[in-house]
Predict the 3D structure of the following.
Amino acid sequence: MVTSAPKGTKDILPEQVYKWQYVEEKFAELCERYGFKEIRTPVFEHTELFTRGVGDTTDIVQKEMYTFEDHGHRSITLKPEGTSPAVRAFIEHKQYAEVQPTKYYYVTPCYRYEKPQAGRLREFHQFGIETFGTGDMLADAEVICFANDFLGEMGVTDIRLRINSVGCPECRKKHREALKDFLKPNYDKLCNTCKDRYERNPMRIIDCKSPECQEIVKGAPMMIDYLCDDCREAFEDLQKNLDALGIEYEVDPTIVRGLDYYTKTAFEFVTDAIGAQGTVCGGGRYDHLVEEVGGPPIPGVGFGLGIERLLLLMENLGVEIPEPDAVDAFIAVMGDEAKACGLKLLRELRQKGLRVQMDTLARNVKGQFKYANRLGARYTVVIGDDEIKAGVVSLKEMATSEQREVKMENLAEELIKREE
């Protein structure tokens, strides 16, 4: 029906949007402190960006992307995640030629065709940060520290950080063969998706959500035991950096993340406060993604954090998000002359930065006061014939019903003073 939002999408109404604005403002403030600059990328990209970047063995590419052909017969995809578009913009605008590192942040809608559930919709919104141009594990630690600090500032306490190393193409070769040997006796029992992964990217089988596949991979060889010297040293360095930052973590060899571009660092912040254990924030290092989609060999690291899941988690934890004051003052008028005077004051007060409203339904005075109360106005400014003659207004504080006369020319100053 045209009067129903498509399945898996959700309207954000005024009584909820202030919560979104709150977390968005806090995220932007922390990004400024950390030196991340905002980037905004298109809502759709060439499909090849995601098949090459995210990986054609992932659930996202195989099952979840919204892909269509445009009028020019080009394959276009609504972005399912934020990292690949940021990488594309980094390459297209030759940001790699600037002084490195480059540090981006974004707040963006994303689209995945999957079964809608609490905190997971087909249109969802994501915070993300990306650091390009450095392979130092200090950058990985900074990205993790940022996520930890942001969740802490949002009042999220029931959460755990898990880290792993998924190695590099060189050390993955030995692990790949060991894992395939381990899985081979049970190949026929794997789900169809994992049978395809068996040849193309067997490590992704560890991340399969099928109960049968989860049972099969119990006791499987883990990447962390096959790391080359460089990857092992990098993982040890990451842990030293996290220790120095005072961030608690646990090493979880089963973390592989759902995207093919990760190398070395992979991490997740998980919680039980949104039902079954779920990931609130996840990310890692991707040293070959820039090169894979057509750029120079530039390393990167970042994370994505779902806004819907964050707000659900905050609600479940009882975190109160302060409601903003909707209206500083409401102007109630009696008569046409008072209306003209009220309109003049309305514009003057708004130009001074005050949130002011006035009735547009020709209510009587009693109705205007009721409406002012429903709007949550702190003050009601009453203007009638007597007030106009005297050059004053009657200023009523709604919470206490205290009322006093104020000169019209002093009204803005008086309201601003009371706001302080």
About this structure: The radius of gyration is 28 Å. Residues 161 and 249 are 5 Å apart (CA to CA).
